[in-house]
Amino acid sequence: MWDIAFRARIHSERLRFAEPPRTAVRFPGAGERDSVSDSARDHLPEKVVPHHVYRDATVDYRLKTRLTGRREAGGADV
User: What is the DSSP annotation of 5-38?
Assistant: First the structure.
């Protein structure tokens, strides 16, 4: 069982990046956790090319996290 589970699907008929996107996923807070973050893409490569037009692109994104119940060094009990 996950404490948080999030899923999103984004679709674009036409998509162009002026520059490569900078992305990051962080799970701040106290307590150790087990987390998963990934995406599946159709018609959109992992590393996009600036100014290239991508057509009919779809991204399915998934994020899941849960506290493990273990205590982080210097943190409070969870």
Answer: EEEEEEEEEEEE-SS---------SSS-EEEEEE
CA atoms lying within 13 Å on the CB side of residue 51: 0
For the whole model, what pTM was predicted? Answer: 0.73
Distance CA 55, CA 7 (A): 22
Of the candidates 63, 61, 70, 60, the one whose C-alpha atom is nearest the C-alpha of residue 4 is 63
How confident is the model over 10-38, as pLDDT tens digits? 999 999 999 999 988 887 777 888 999 99
CA 74 – CA 54 distance, rounded (Å): 47
What is the total residue count of the chain?
Answer: 78
